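lol so apparently i was supposed to do this last week
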Amino acid sequence: MIRRQVSAALCSARLQAGMWRTPKCPPEGGRYNAQNGVPAPTLPARSFLRAALFACIVLVAALSSPAPARAWGCQAHQMIALLAEKHLTPHALATVQEILSSNPIDPGMKRICKDRSLDAMADSSTWADDIRAERPETSLWHYINIRFGATLRGAGKNVDEVVDQFCDPQESCLTRATAEQFAILRATETDPRKKADALRFVIHFVGDLHQPLHNSTNNDQGGNCVPVNYFGVLPQLRNPRTETYLPNLHAIWDYDILARATTGKSTEQDAADMDQSYRRKIAAWQKGPADFDAWSWESYQLAWKIVYGKLPVRIPVEVPQAVKSCADNNHVSERMLRLNERIGEPYQKLAVPAIRERLAQAGARLAMLLNELWP
Ligand SMILES: [Zn+2]
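anyway here it is w/ zinc ion bound
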């Protein structure tokens, strides 16, 4: 039993690190009884030592694991970039390639996403996650905490005003960071290295603006503090100090749902398929306008309507308060764990088209932004 639990944790960790297609980590159905969550039979005694060793490794990993992830996974960001490339003007495509090749990513940098076979734009799409270790102040740029219950009601309120309320003026946030990096990219006098960084941030952040859980929170760190049973894989405590569990709602929207839906296909093939199926809509989305606050608000609404709205057990709106870890807010993850959210085929069927449409929108809009700079 121990080893089975540990193996699930290791696989989740691999998925968390963006190692989508690790052959030893297929979609996890079957490790536990999907119907009743009962652990599979106990291991024979001769395997106990090995199991204990695995448990130690995982415990060390859990105790040293970083703050909860808040990013689309490798596959999603790469798909967005690949899709955007199909809709760039020849001038925009040549300029993007020129900027990225003149100031390449430091080959010594530790990269989260391991697939090095992709072109420079797709490879650049995940650099903003890599740079967090070197530039921790940029971590806050990947999300905005629009609180559940926020509405546009009220005299004179518009989307920009409402969204801006949730962006800390001292610390910045996703919508503001995107606007700032886009301004750096647009400026003619920008230092070439800064311009390449800005391009890589914009490629990444347009993706994050379209991930519902990067744009909303219910005192749960954008769903990072909502443990879920994903196709029979029981949530396991990954960090006792922060009370972080895997799988959780944020992680499955970042990684697992898409990975399960695209098993066996290359990222390029996924992007080509999406381009075909959304061709008409892409043309409409590219008519704009480019409005980062509006894109963020769309994500927030999607979180409300589908990510949380279609969960098997309804989660009430929490009274707003600052949450630094899943141990805060009266042990929010422990409270959510007791709801026993079981994610299976009915939820997956609703989530996959929502995710694919957001990825296609992000790709179309990223191309629109870059075409505007380099028509
Ligand atoms: Zn991100």
